[in-house]
Design goal:
- Helices cover 33% and strands 17% of the residues.
- The chain contains 24 helices and 29 strands.
- It is globular and about 75 Å long.
- Helix 1 links the parallel strand 3 and strand 4.
Length: 670
């Protein structure tokens, strides 16, 4: 019997090519190509988990048609030479094992490559200009900005041929679908967009003329690859930038393009220009709505009902995917981060077990690795880290069954528990409080933290699916653990909030911000939040939306405070200033808390030394956390010393990524 997700799992045949369902892996950049830009065995094994999980098509992001001209990642595929064909066959053949289509997103990023990476003489675009990013780059490096070069007709012809040959090499390697990157401000969109294209010849001016380069690319691919080869073009449904192409013109543009493509893959925004200002439009964070770009796909599908449309952008579940396809908004759905969080999502839904899906946090741990560079891993799916080592994503059985204690029921402890059970060990988890989840409980309270709420629900359900023993309201003392004579021990006792050493901090109207959000502490109408990190700002937003008067004070000046926020919260940090301004929540930077009184806080302004009083009836502390390393050390000899591991915040305060991965790795090696 099939699943209830009938539209998601409906097959479709395009140009004689069969697609088993409508679920695509949106193109990641895994940083696993060789230095020469070729597929590696690690690359193949990374994508194997998605093929095995049930997606119909796998796309690889940002594959360069010529690395000497377009390079903006450390380890991206290079398609300029036939030498790459043999390694590509490893990827294509792997996908065929699972009735899945291997594909690539072929790209030339035009002016977006830095002169330092490709040389000033190799930076081309539709026109000659200095982009905002190049201007800022030059200032940062202490040099003059370098304009990109306008492509001559000869250079255009040469570049069209490079696109075609890239696709042809894919076909020779055994692939039957290509994604041509025509969005996000890359070269093709630099021709299509009036923001970049200032030409006065047949490639510039009218929308039809600006479509010419993309048409020539797709026509050339068709000539090289034949009729039984699917061409999908990625576009920005709306570039968002005021000077860019808006959705109405995109619809017109697709009218010229659709005779030459089979599928329009509709994203939004600009990739790298304007120093990532429009990043949020193609890679949304957890403060933004799900299905963020679907309305662009819907408008395009309505305008061009004869064109197949693929939509992408925070499609976090197959319930949402089913609604999109069943309502006619699109024909395919693409997702990257949700499939990285759970590559087996399609398989779980096909078996009518959607509750088993491991939810994506939209935390950007994966995309953050791109810029280090580091292979693209996932905060909640530690198996992605081991895709090269663990065959078929299976945790190996331990050679010797052990009696293991896990102390702490947060993400580190629960991950350790499930991994230990998979290893075949006898596991007991001790949790001092009455609930599993650790600090994720407080993090998931704000109504806008939907992804975190989904993750918490999934996380706390996992121990119940195992044969492990879970003891709530039980403190794991040295005496208790010694009595049980454990063979191994994983300590995941977490971290405690830091409170400032100021007069009045112990007053009853002072509490840790997440405790107040959880209802563990009273909250009045006039609140001062101490700390402008993500914990403090999320609390401020939540209580302001509840109708409270909220003021945030932060010791650091605004610049350093924002840098610290970016370090901890990544790209979602960009959301907070706008939201706080809209909600009318003042943030007082450079304010040092010196005393808490019954009806006010007293601060010193660092810039002037002036004393300032802010009236309030509630003070919420959010200045950071400190590891419970002393508590962890007290338990280190409750099992053979070499078999004791401290994980998560207990050893060093971090985030869910750090907790999950350290818990998994400790259990994997016991």
């Amino acid at each position: 019997m099939g699943s209830k997700f009938t539209h998601v799992f409906e097959p479709i045949t395009i140009r004689g090519v069969d697609f088993k369902n409508r679920i695509c892996l949106a193109p990641p950049s895994p940083n696993l190509a060789s230095e020469e830009g070729y597929v590696t065995k690690d690359f193949v094994n990374f994508f194997r988990m998605f093929a095995r999980g049930g997606a119909c098509t796998l796309f690889v992001g940002n594959c360069s048609i010529d690395i000497t001209e377009c390079k903006d990642e450390a380890y991206q595929l290079n398609l300029i030479s036939d030498n790459g064909i043999l390694p590509l066959t490893w990827y294509a053949d792997m996908a065929k094992e699972y009735s899945c289509h291997a594909s690539l997103e072929i790209n030339h990023n035009g002016e977006n490559s830095a002169p330092e990476d490709v040389g000033a003489e190799n930076r081309y675009s539709s026109s000659s200009f200095i982009s905002a990013t190049e201007a800022n780059r030059a200032k940062r490096l202490g040099r003059d900005p370098i304009p990109c070069k306008e492509m001559t007709h000869e250079k255009i012809k040469e570049t069209v041929e490079k696109y075609a040959m890239a696709a042809y090499r894919m076909k020779r390697a055994g692939m039957d679908i290509v994604m041509v990157h025509g969005g996000h401000g890359n070269l093709i969109s630099q021709f299509m967009s009036p923001m970049y294209n200032k030409r006065t010849d047949e490639y510039g001016g009218s929308t039809e003329n600006r479509a010419r380069f993309a048409i020539e690319v797709c026509k050339s691919i068709r000539e090289k690859c034949g009729e039984n080869f699917v061409i999908e073009m990625r576009i920005s449904g709306d570039e968002i930038a005021p000077e860019g192409m808006r959705v109405e013109e995109t619809i017109e543009m697709l009218g010229y393009l659709k005779p030459y493509i089979d599928i329009a893959h509709v994203s939004a925004g600009i990739h790298s220009d304007f120093d990532m200002k429009y990043y949020r439009n193609w890679c949304q964070n957890f403060m933004m709505p799900r299905g963020f770009n679907v309305h662009y796909a819907e408008k395009i599908k309505k305008a061009h009902p004869d064109l197949l449309v693929n939509t992408v952008g925070s499609i976090t579940s197959l319930e949402l995917a089913e609604e999109i396809i069943s309502s006619g908004k699109a024909d395919f759905v693409s997702m990257m981060r949700p499939l990285l969080a759970d590559p087996d999502m399609p398989r779980k839904y096909a078996n009518n077990k959607p509750e088993d899906r491991r939810p994506c946090l939209r935390c950007d741990a994966c995309t953050g690795h791109l810029f280090i560079p580091k292979p693209q891993y996932c905060a909640v799916n530690p198996m992605a880290f081991f895709s090269r080592d663990l065959t078929d994503g299976i945790v190996p059985k331990a050679p010797v069954k052990k009696k293991v204690a896990v102390v702490g029921g947060g993400p580190a402890g629960i991950t350790a528990l499930t991994t230990l059970v998979d290893r075949g060990h006898d596991v007991t988890l001790y949790e001092q409080s009455g609930a599993l989840g650790g600090n994720v409980i407080g993090a998931a309270v704000p109504p806008f933290k939907l992804d975190c709420q989904d993750y918490l629900k999934w996380l706390v359900a996992q121990p119940g699916k195992t044969n492990a023993k879970v003891l709530l309201n039980t403190e794991a003392t040295k005496e208790l653990l010694d009595k049980e004579n454990y063979d191994a021990l994983i300590i995941a006792v977490g971290a405690d909030p830091v409170f400032p050493d100021v007069l009045g901090v112990n007053k009853p109207h002072v509490s840790w911000a997440p405790d107040a959000e959880c209802g563990k502490a009273p909250v009045g109408n006039d609140i001062v939040v101490v700390g402008a990190g993500s914990v403090g700002l999320e609390a401020a937003i939540e209580f302001k939306r509840e109708g409270k008067n909220v003021t945030v004070i932060e010791l650091l000046e605004e610049g350093p405070a924002m840098m610290a926020l970016f370090k901890s919260a990544k790209m979602v940090a960009r959301e907070f200033p706008t939201i706080l301004a809209n909600e009318k929540v003042p943030v007082k930077y450079g304010y040092e808390l010196t005393e808490i009184k019954d009806d006010k806080v007293v601060c010193r302004m660092l810039a002037t030394g002036e004393t300032v009083e802010i009236p309030c009836d509630t003070v919420l502390i959010a200045i950071g956390m400190k590891s419970r390393i002393k508590a962890a050390h007290a338990l280190r000899r409750c099992a053979p010393e070499t078999e004791v591991h401290i994980v998560g915040d207990a050893v060093e305060v971090g985030n869910i990524y750090d907790a999950v991965h350290t818990g998994f790795q400790a259990a994997l090696h016991l």
